[in-house]
From TrEMBL:
GO terms for molecular function: oxidoreductase activity. PROSITE patterns: FAD_FR (PS51384). Residues 17-115 form the FAD-binding FR-type domain. Pfam families: FAD_binding_6. This is Siderophore-interacting protein.
Length: 238
């Protein structure tokens, strides 16, 4: 619910559990459009799963959802990797956050369907809006010895950001509409390699790209597909 009347957001704000006051302790630009923001607060009895997210109330009538990229509950630290497209209220809000800012925010909620410990292989697809999810996945993938690959379609200025974040096994593709071409997508190696026929495919980012990729995966593999488009051209706050 990216937009709603003020009275509805006020009601939800009153009813939704919150974290104690948190402080921005780090705000680093990884590129012109990708920013890492780290908060510190009391995380006692707070749990973070792969894909946990927090809804930020941006103003009286707008909210935006951001995935937690990393959390250390003992140290009281948690962070986000945010994409700043310069167009929406969420982008402006995150762009303006700086060290020393104090925020009361909602408690994180989980996305338990993303990660299955019993699955041997994972393919995780997305764009700049998916970098935080990839970062939240990585520790569990390595800890439990999964085979995995990250597929990112990124702007030229962001092609080195996954490396800066310590992400491994990344295939980087330019935003040249490749993922809108069915024949090209159908030739991706992880779709045609027998060992990856039963992988878990987690598809986020551009909804249109993710939907075509899901179609091909369903046609050519026996894998499980989890799709959550984060944005769609022409639609606000998907």
């Amino acid at each position: 619910m990216p937009s709603a009347p003020k009275w509805l957001f006020d009601t939800l704000d009153f009813l939704t559990p919150k974290l104690p006051l948190t402080e921005v302790v780090e705000a680093v630009s990884l590129s012109k459009s990708v920013k890492k923001i780290c908060f510190k607060g009391d995380l006692k009895n707070v749990q973070f799963a792969v894909g946990s997210f927090i809804d930020f109330r941006i103003n009286a009538t707008e909210a935006r959802r951001y995935t937690v990229s990393y959390a250390d509950t003992e140290k009281g630290l948690f962070e986000f990797i945010v994409y700043l497209n310069g167009k929406g209220c969420g982008s402006h809000y995150m762009s303006d956050l700086k060290v020393g800012d104090n925020i009361v925010m909602y408690k994180p909620r989980g996305e338990s369907r993303y990660y299955d410990k019993t699955t041997q292989r994972f393919v995780i697809f997305g764009d700049e809006t998916s970098l935080a999810l990839a970062c939240s996945f990585l520790p569990m993938l390595k800890k439990n010895n999964h085979q995995f690959v990250f597929l990112f379609e990124l702007d030229e200025e962001n092609k080195n950001v996954p490396k800066l974040l310590g992400l491994e096994n990344c295939l980087i593709f330019p935003k040249n509409f490749s993922f809108s071409m069915e024949e090209w997508v159908s030739k991706l190696p992880m779709i045609n390699t027998p060992d990856w026929q039963e992988a878990n495919f987690v598809l986020t980012g551009n909804a249109k790209s993710a939907q075509l990729l899901r179609k091909i995966i369903k046609e050519k593999t026996n894998g499980n597909v989890f799709l959550h488009g984060y944005w769609l051209a022409g639609k606000k706050g998907l």
